[in-house]
Every structure is written in C-alpha cells, then in structure tokens.
Amino acid sequence: MQALVWQGGQEFSMQSIPKPRAERGRVVVKVTAAAVCGSDFHLADFKEKAPLVPGHEVCGVIESCGADVLGLVPGDRVALNPVQFCGTCGCCTKGLPHLCSAYRHLGAGGVQGGWAEYVAIDAVNAHRVPDGVDDIAACLLEPMAVCYESFTRAALQPDDTVLIIGDGTFGFLHAQIAAARGVRRIIVAGHYDTRLKRIAAQVEMVPCNTHHEDLAERVREITDGHGVDVAIEATGAGSSPNAGLKALRPRGTLVIFSYVWKPEPLAMGLIHMNELNVLGSCRSLGAFDPCLELLRTQKVNTRILADVIVPFDEWPVAVNRLARDKAQVFKAVFVPRQ
Ligand SMILES: [Zn+2]
Ligand SMILES: [Zn+2]
Asked: Does domain 145-280 correspond to CATH entry 3.40.50.720?
C-alpha cells in the first residue's frame, strides 16, 4: 500500500509499505481522511526515529476485524483515538488509560499512523461515526477530544468566564466546545484578525488581538475586575502561561494545553497569593463519544476548520499552505486519491 512517510527533519515522501493485518482484538481501517497536526512537524524534536508514517487524526472504514473484536464489523465508519493502552499498568488500572505507561500512539514511537491507505488499531480505539458527520469532520475528532478534555480537567461550569489564549485550531475548537458546554462569556486572544473573525462568526465571544490590545485590560473590562474563572493556554508560547495566570480570579484555573517548547518561569507569587490551580491537559479520557454527540447535534463544527483538503501525494501543497498562510489556514486534511 501507499503511505506518506516521514524521512527525518521536515522531509516526507510517498512510499510503498506492507499493508497491516488485523490481529486479535484489532481492526484494519481503510483511511478516508487524515489530518495534519502541528506536532507532525515536531517529530524530530520529540526524538522520533525515521522512517515513520505519521498521522493520528484519522477517519476511515473498517476493512477487516481480527479475532475477539466485538461490536464492530467491516464497513463501519470509524474515527480513531490514537492512544492505545496496555490495560495493566498503574495508570490503566487507576482508570487513566490515556496516560498508560506503555501506550502505543498512532504515528509515533514506531507505530504506523494514518497517513496511509490502511492503518491498524486496537478495536476499542475505533469509535463509530454517526450518519450526518462526514469523514473530514470526523477525522478532526481527536483534536476536538483533547480540547474537550481541557474543560473536563478545569471542572468547567456554564456560568464560568473562559479565556482561551490562542487563535489557532485549538483555540477555535476550545471556543466552540466552551460555547457548546453552555459558557456564555468567552474571550479568545490571538494574533490574527482573520482567524479571530472566523472564530467570532462561529462562536459568541470577545476577541482580543494582543498585537494591538491589552489582554489584562480586556479581561478586567469583561469581568468587572474580577478575572476569569478558567484560562486555557493553547499557543505553546513561553510567555503565555503567565498571561493566563494574570487573567485569573483568585482560585481560578489555568490549563496548560499546549506543549511549551521554551518555557518561562511561572509567576509563583501569583499562584501562591491567589491560590490558583495550574493543570496540565495533554490527551483525552472518555471524550470521543461526547464529542461525536456534539458533532452529530451540530453544536460543534469541525468541518469548517478544514481549509486545505488534498490527496496524500499532494502533501507539499498542505505543508506550504500551513507554513505560509497561517492567517487563513486552520487545518489541512489528506484524502485518498479518487
Ligand atoms: Zn495532534
Ligand atoms: Zn497501561
């Protein structure tokens, strides 16, 4: 079968590789849509070894089931949770399989991902997609689920005021999910007016372009000086976690959602004096099914993020648009060539 293979650095190429087989408890999925994640360009930074087939945001149709697969049959349309767990380690037995110490993540650690004609995965990681949710929307279930998890971590309440720092894909998804979970006061901070406008067209929120507006001031205005209940850091910038901390009310919660590559020291005085909560959120736990329900009932729209849709072999188009057209492009999705 054909696959788009990472060759180290920022090099990718189409290659012929063996098609996976459905082993016990696993399914083989014919990929119909697989998205590009920012982390797919950080494989070297994450010390991944080339060659590797990336891709952990995947929708497809089950082609074959191994022995002992219950509840799924060939032909089922599924979205994949890329974090496969062992079921026996300390985290798995504590009910935290997403943090499994022996996890196998699609498109990482030598596990073949979804940028290919077929991908194999543990059957429990394949979630049936309801009619009315198309393949492009469904392949973006994984990034949606990890955003959903941020709010679960923060124990979000509908009357909370939420600040989302970041106007990228994850900012857009967090904003939609906050609104879908009943939040009425949402601030989205970012750098691109074009992106903020698109988010505002979908979600009732107050935009703040931090290039020419003061975020702290904006927060004071909107919260009568109290500060927000929940701040989500979804940029990965070193200064961003502290901007989140400064925006919080006493006992407010900052969720570190993005991986911060060049962290700055956290404002410990603020955390101490205002009794702030700082929580990490990286993957998702039980979020796929509630997210599918939000897609089915059209409370969240992931489809509108897919600005570039190209066949796998036109991957340079996707890479270029993502790199050069940040103001316009949220997501790129690969599809099979027809
Ligand atoms: Zn991702
Ligand atoms: Zn485990």
From this structure: yes
